[in-house]
Amino acid sequence: MKIYGDKQSGNSYKLILVTSFLEIPYEWQNIDTKKGETRTDSFLQMNPNGKIPILILDDGRILSESNAILNFLAEGSDLIPNDSFERAKVFQWQFFEQYSHEPYIAVARYIRHYLGIPEERRAEYESKQMGGHKALQVMETQLEKTPYLVGDHLTTADISLFAYTHVAEEGGFDLSSYPKILDWIKRIQSLERFVPMKSF
Questions:
Q1: Cβ distance 163 to 13 under 8 Å?
Q2: Which CATH architecture describes the domain 2-74?
Q3: What is the pLDDT of residues 17-65, one digit of tens each?
Q4: CA separation for the pair 198, 200 (Å, rounded)
Q5: Maximum CA extent, the chain
Q6: Which residues form the GST N-terminal domain (predicted)?
Q7: How far apart are CA 172 and CA 111, in angstroms?
Q8: What does the pLDDT look like over 99-137, one tens digit per residue?
Q9: How far is CA 9 from CA 31, 85, 121, 153, in A?
Q10: Beta-bridge mates of residue 151
């Protein structure tokens, strides 16, 4: 099994976390998005959408989209609830991550941390702040009620949201205003087989 990803990508980091938590063996194939490696003919044959991460199974089947891969890898584990309603809540948080969280926090992080907020992207960066804080407040509200996003144990919902939330300050988001999120981050970091983003 091979995972194609970029070490600076939160979406790729989700898969690093789940494979570590579940002790799933794989081969890492590094893709440098800054060098255009997702736009090569060979990569586009694997994923016409030209995005990472992608998973290639031993039999050659290919799966893209980080949360789809995450849930596939976690199938049958405690990271995906057996209860149909709780499972739907996991998916609810993952849709939230892709539509209401990642477009603001991950993009702001990219503009600030990797590009240094060039003047031509300053307005875009500033526009991401409001949406990012709204997403963080939604998470904070839930984490005031439960230790994890879907109840009292880790699920793939937490892995999905952890990836970019724990580095949100690199996008200019002050997490000190969100004490429950900070507690949640520490809770995940203290789990057995946790691996830091910077270490892979």
A1: yes
A2: 3-Layer(aba) Sandwich (3.40)
A3: 999 999 999 999 999 988 899 999 999 999 999 999 999 999 999 999 9
A4: 6
A5: 49
A6: 1-81
A7: 10
A8: 999 999 999 999 998 889 999 999 999 999 999 999 999
A9: 10, 30, 20, 25
A10: 148
